[in-house]
């Protein structure tokens, strides 16, 4: 894979600089390293803050979701590497409106370690935090060990839902954490990888996969999936992913779900819509209603080819928060 | 390149079906072939219509830009092949609100032939049309032969600007055609290709390019560009593209432009923002102001790697129309 970049070690920083330069009304860069992105307009006093973060290389995740009705700040690391403790602290401070800050991020060891350390130090400085981990990837652990699951594209649902809750003037940190937890519990995801991506500083693909093969359940950093086998038709892939999610989450007739068909990067919109058409048909057959479907690039691995499917089971509370206004370039109202 | 699809000959149709299934409030499929996409809410009487179209394989171009403040209908063909005359006629009829219809599409022989034939037949049926061709690709012909230039990603500017004009109750077909022409004249684009894409029915890449090479000026169907050479740094590529556009359009200090940094498909947001950061810096140095920049996937060639840069020189009239509301999943207000 060929990349348009300058120095590999400047990839993450230059991308962040461009994001902020292109959208100065939405994002601003903070911290000594510039690896903290916060809302351009600053933090509103009395609002519960929400911070996320993780490795670079997943745009628009994580930083793209900073914005009204979504996140308040993000700290990011190098490509596929967690943010530093100092940057996590800086992000939390930027998101501190005096009502506490929710740390809402994917379930990865390095991220957890650094966010936890930052939270401990900030507790001593008088900034209370709560942590909710996104763990939606059914390909990474059995349902009986849900706390071991990784966080993937389904993270947009807790972001959007907790983000909407935190805009409400009477919402406390406990309220926002509780709804984030509910959104995490409601969300399941699974991916299929067709090609690897290349971390700029490594200079070679993260894994290898034969021309005629695909891997179901692979993680967004190339973590091993559930099954590798011959590349199947889009319909067969859609059916396989959907069946796994419906079974795992036990979603049945009469329920309402939001559906996210996400490209891991190179896979174009055309293929996402081919997958979506099948998923919509299958859900209709089962009398499951789709609300606010999302089709596009929401959490990527740079130029990796492949897609993921996420379902978020909605009740009236989650649905209203999902539909609430949000302002960032990567969340469409329609 | 590996694709998630069913039958190669169903690729375009299934993608359209998915687009309409995912966004039933925005799009509806018309025509015997289903290759015509119109606004879900139908055509408003008394409004000038705008129709576009072309080959499939460029999502969200063309069909994605049907929506309030943008296009009224589109007709599309197979991947990289023009729409049929019948579908062009069907699209124009769907966009007919009794005030005439603007045909606004890229300058390609097959598209022109079929849209022209459709326009002639509809003239006899009493539906007046005017045609404005988008010809923004400076890599495809000299400025002295601008009418020979192909239409590429810069088409979003005439779409958005003419689309906003057509929503005004007092706008006539001539008014809308005139502003579309003005937007076309104000827009220049150039692309750089790093890898080819594969047309599903052909099953092999559209062209070949060595691992260490790039081609400046290549068209979105793999048409030959201006120069092929070693892959350069993002800054060098950004400078090269920007200099060509500024020289061609003679844009100088004190002017206002909108900037579009567009991925041809596989190239991720990170790389687009790296390019954007450099372009913003260079324009600032020249005292040229950026208004409403766009960074993302606006006109693609499926999974082709590469990017294009477009500039639209604004006066107060064009800027106001560019900033007017628009409702589709692929146009962000921020």
TrEMBL record, chains A, B:
Gene Ontology CC entries for this record: cytosol
InterPro entries found in the cross-reference section: DhaK_dom, Dihydroxyacetone_Kinase
GO biological process terms, semicolon-separated: glycerol catabolic process
Domain named DhaK: residues: 7-331
Keyword Lyase in annotation: no
Keywords, in A-Z order: ATP-binding, Kinase, Nucleotide-binding, Transferase
GO molecular function, one term: glycerone kinase activity
Protein's recorded name: Kinase
